[in-house]
Amino acid sequence: MEKNPFSCAVLVKFCLCSLLLTLPLYGQNLVSNSSFESYSTAPDDQGQITRATGWEEVVVSADYMNTTYACWSPEIGGVYSGTGFAGFASYGDPGGSSEAIGQDISANPILPGITYSIRLHAKKSHSGFYSANCGGVELTGFNIPPVLGSLGIHPESLAGCNVLWISPPVFDSIWGYYSGCFQSTTPINYIVFSTEKNINCPQYIFIDSLEIKAQSASSFTLGNDTSICTGQTFLLDATYLGATYVWQDNSTNPTYPVTQAGTYFVTISAGGCQLKDTVQITELNCSATVIVPNVFTPNGDGANDFFYPIIVGEYTNPELIIYNRWGEPLFQDDSFTPGWDGKTNGVESPEGVYYWVIKFTDSSGVTIEKSGNLSLFRTP
Ligand SMILES: [Ca+2]
Fold it and tell me: Under 8 Å CB-to-CB from 194, ≥6 apart: which residues?
């Protein structure tokens, strides 16, 4: 920043407090040099964000802060992580201008239709000219990188700007953790951080340890729409690392037992994000109907020459066995078509009473077995 509100007279030694948060992993951080620890040269003045590797000055004159810089005001306070962090001020002008930092993320862009989580740490200065903040950190995105080096405007004024997310107001001079989720309607190849656009409100915000990660759609799903057999229970499983759950009936378990047709949905909250999925469950009568004739006439006249059961409904694993009256198996097949032709080892079986057994698996996975008598006649 140019309006140096800080005194450089005091050299302050800092205690670096390592606040390591245990966060779930959702993928790659899209922000490079996200903790401002990599730099070309240590800053020796304000307004030197370009010394932090990968960061650019979108609206002048954003600051690169580093504890290696001897001019270290107590008004800034401590660093959040490592030695470096960044700061941007807005001057309270009628246009709501803000210093802004940005970086190219075209190698791993933000894509439409995907939910992204954002997490960062932010604080305001301890005291002084900019100690009364009114807004939060604003993330904006551009499909094409904006013209760099603008002065006295807010990033929202730049052509092609998309406001992606704004944190709650940064009122505290102690590092706070801010997180949320956003989606973009267009591809974003360039991201910009600034203060929230606030007219007539001077503010100064420091940020550190940034993270933007895709919430993979495939990492959470209730699965495809499906059907269940009447009387069957189907378990919907929404289990997700570190999440809490709210189902359509406000129950809160990771799983939900479905026993009837309907629309089922769950909203899960994980890492500051909310993800939702819905499935439609339909109900089927899975019990197959079996029709078995008790007479057949295998005389080659083309009518009723084969004995076979008629199954109404889906089935698998068919098995047909014919026994004679003495319980000796005469015919066996793993299909119901064409059925028994009335012969035993190629020889016509005599007229009389036979005994049949059929087995199959219905669409609910239950094995069905039926048996009965059959009269064989040679003349119709
Ligand atoms: Ca840092």
Answer: 58, 59, 88, 90, 98, 99, 100, 101, 137, 138, 140, 154, 155
pTM of the model: 0.59
Closest CA to 258 of 248, 243, 268, 267: 248
Amino acid, single-letter form, for residue 194: S
Structural domain spans, the chain: 49-217, 220-284, 289-376
Write down the architecture of domain 220-284 according to CATH: Sandwich (2.60)
The CATH class that applies to domain 49-217 reads mainly beta
For residue 64, the CA-to-ligand 1 centroid distance in Å is: 10
Q: Residue 127 is encoded by which pair of tokens?
A: 């005291």
The CA 184 to ligand 1 mean position distance, Å, reads 27
Q: Give distance in angstroms: CA of 67 to centre of ligand 1.
A: 10
CA of 260 to the centre of ligand 1 (A): 53
- The alpha carbon of 33 and the centre of ligand 1 are apart by a number of angstroms equal to 9
Q: What is the pLDDT along the chain (380 residues), one digit of tens a residue?
A: 544 444 333 333 232 222 233 233 347 899 999 999 999 998 988 899 999 999 999 999 999 998 887 666 656 778 888 999 999 999 888 889 999 999 999 999 999 878 888 989 999 987 776 777 889 999 999 999 999 998 889 999 999 999 999 999 999 989 999 988 888 999 999 999 999 998 888 899 999 999 999 876 555 788 899 988 888 889 999 987 678 899 999 999 999 999 999 999 999 887 667 778 899 999 887 777 889 999 999 988 888 999 999 988 889 999 999 999 999 999 999 999 999 999 999 999 999 999 999 999 988 788 889 999 999 998 76
Whole-number Å distance, alpha carbon 189 to ligand 1 midpoint, is 23
Tell me, in angstroms, the distance from the centre of ligand 1 to residue 80's CA: 6
Shared fold status for 49-217 and 289-376: no
Q: Find tokens 């064989």 and name the residue.
A: 376
Tokens of 255: 């799983």
Distance 41 CA to ligand 1 centre (A): 15
Q: Does domain 289-376 have CATH number 2.30.30?
A: no
